[in-house]
Amino acid sequence: MHFCSSINERCLMKTRLYQQLLERKNKGRKSFAVLIDPDKVDSKALDQLTSLAIRASADYLFVGGSLVISNHLDDVVQHIRKQCDIPVILFPGSPSQISRDADGLLYLSLISGRNPELLIGQHVISAAAVKKSGLEILSTGYMVIDGGAPTTVSYISNAAPIPADKNEIAMCTAMAGEMLGMKVIYMDAGSGAKRPISEAMIEKVSGVIEAPLIVGGGITTPEKAYLNCKAGADVIVIGNAIEKDPSLIGEMSAAIHAVPVKAGH
Ligand code: 1GP
Q: How many C-alpha atoms does 81 have within 13 Å on its Cβ side?
């Protein structure tokens, strides 16, 4: 009894990030999320990334990776918090990747796969800890799309990705996720994908859902980021390209924010 009530006290459902995502979507304002993999940054690299993200007016910092071998997720999140007030959203590869110092958590269910562990199993195991964290929980229909080569996520998830040209499967998967109550849909070609998701698929999927649509995986140029947004992506996530060349943060952000907002806003 005591266990349940202490969890509930901590967790008066927060919705600030979700409301902001919805508001931006309604206005047609596109957002840029810089993905930081805790395994790939030391404090110097982190300082550089955060100062570039501040200068470029990046909207979100996503933190996470498929593996997270190192044990310094909390340190990374706390370090970012000291440097800037850009919202930090966890993008976990496993239930152990939780830090209370973040603002929110993409609570991922791998709806493109048929691995029950990643649809619901691990969620049950970690539910009490996640709820107790006090983080804003963004229930996310996570769809992995074939990016032309096996990526860490496709290997680790042990689930087949949606074929890159099967727009109908992607549409129906996203619709089903939304009808099941997921608040956001994330289409991911996987980190470092050879082929990012096509504009045709993004357009089709965004046309059949009202939930904010996050798109990432293999986006390496500002042009591609811009076209993805024009096709209907609401949030663009970029990790690999920025790891290789952090100065791209400015150009990516400018391209994403250059997409015209809807008339009247
Ligand atoms: C991966 O969507 C993210 O899960 C970002 O991919 O690292 O290829 O930018 P990249």
A: 14
145 secondary structure, DSSP code? B
- Judge if the beta carbon of residue 220 lies within 6 A of ligand 1: no
- Atom from ligand 1 closest to the CA of residue 219: 9
| Rg value, the chain, Cα | 17
Q: Ligand 1 center to residue 34 CA distance, Å?
A: 9
Residue 19 lies in a domain: no
pTM for the predicted model, two decimal places:
0.94
Q: Containing domain of residue 90, as a range? A: 26-257
CATH number where 204 lies: 3.20.20.390
pLDDT tens, N- to C-terminus, the chain (265 residues):
344 444 444 445 799 999 999 999 999 999 999 999 998 999 999 999 999 999 999 999 999 987 666 678 999 999 999 999 999 999 998 888 899 999 999 999 999 999 999 999 999 999 999 999 999 999 999 999 999 988 888 788 888 999 999 999 999 999 999 999 999 999 999 999 999 999 999 999 999 999 999 999 999 999 999 999 999 999 999 999 999 999 999 999 999 999 999 777 6
**Number of structural domains the chain divides into:** 1
Is 262 part of any domain? no
For residue 68, the CA-to-ligand 1 centroid distance in Å is 14
**Which of 176, 235, 252 is closest to 30 using CA atoms?**
235
Q: Which one of 185, 202, 219 would you pick to mutate in the ligand 1 pocket, going by the greatest count of ligand atoms within 8 A of its CB?
A: 219
